[in-house]
From TrEMBL:
Renumbered residue ranges of the record's region Disordered: 56-78
UniProt name for this protein: Uncharacterized protein
Length: 209
């Protein structure tokens, strides 16, 4: 293939049906809205949300403590910060068109009509080493927040399943091969839509992506 670059391969672990529930705003039928990123919030289970909120508060306080007293306003009363919500962004929604056997192999539920890619939660992904190595949090739902995954929705746009990329003991694997020369028209559209960003995960960079 003339437009193929030097091939690289990478296997990504995938865990279907992780223990998280999410909520997002209604997906509009307007095509200009469907092409945008969609914010989501993690709503359960309660113990998982509490852990994530605790990490956000911990790092928020640490950042406050590093600020210069010359630039930090003084208050007579102790400020009580609200409990932060935990969430991130989903890619534009896409219809699922693969056949039943491929769904099973990919861990996609039978009642899923569409899928969105979930980006890592920005405020948590930067602390991957701390959460995994120090806190010993290696459950698939944690990796969903740190590494990302896929969210599946039924015909009514109700979330029916969350699948996570995992770094340990994956039940399934995604086999990635590339890079390939991109179609110029597709690249221009992705660039104008703000969908292109630098690859930052060390495993992907080391594999040539």
């Amino acid at each position: 293939v003339e437009d193929q670059l030097a091939a690289a391969t990478l296997n990504l672990g995938l865990a279907p049906g992780v223990n998280l529930t999410i909520q997002l705003s209604d997906v509009s039928s307007d095509p200009t809205v469907r092409e945008q990123l969609h914010p989501f919030v993690i709503t359960g289970p309660a113990e998982n949300v509490a852990y994530l909120q605790g990490k956000l508060q911990q790092h928020s306080k640490a950042e406050d403590n590093t600020k210069s007293p010359l630039t930090t306003p003084r208050h007579k009363h102790t400020r009580v910060d609200p409990v932060p919500s935990v969430g991130g962004f989903l890619s534009p929604q896409q219809r699922i068109t693969i056949d039943e056997s491929s769904r099973v192999a990919a861990g996609i539920p039978a009642n899923a009509a569409s899928v969105m890619f979930a980006y890592p939660v920005p405020s948590l992904a930067a602390h991957l080493d701390e959460i995994v190595c120090q806190d010993k949090q290696i459950e698939p739902w944690v990796f969903f927040c740190l590494v990302g995954g896929f969210c599946y929705f039924d015909e009514e746009n109700r979330a029916v399943q969350v699948n996570a990329f995992v770094l340990r003991n994956p039940p399934l694997q995604m086999h990635l091969v590339g890079p390939y020369m991109a179609n110029a028209e597709a690249t221009d559209w992705l660039q104008s839509a703000g969908r292109i960003s630098d690859v930052t995960l060390p495993n992907l960079r080391d594999a040539g992506f």
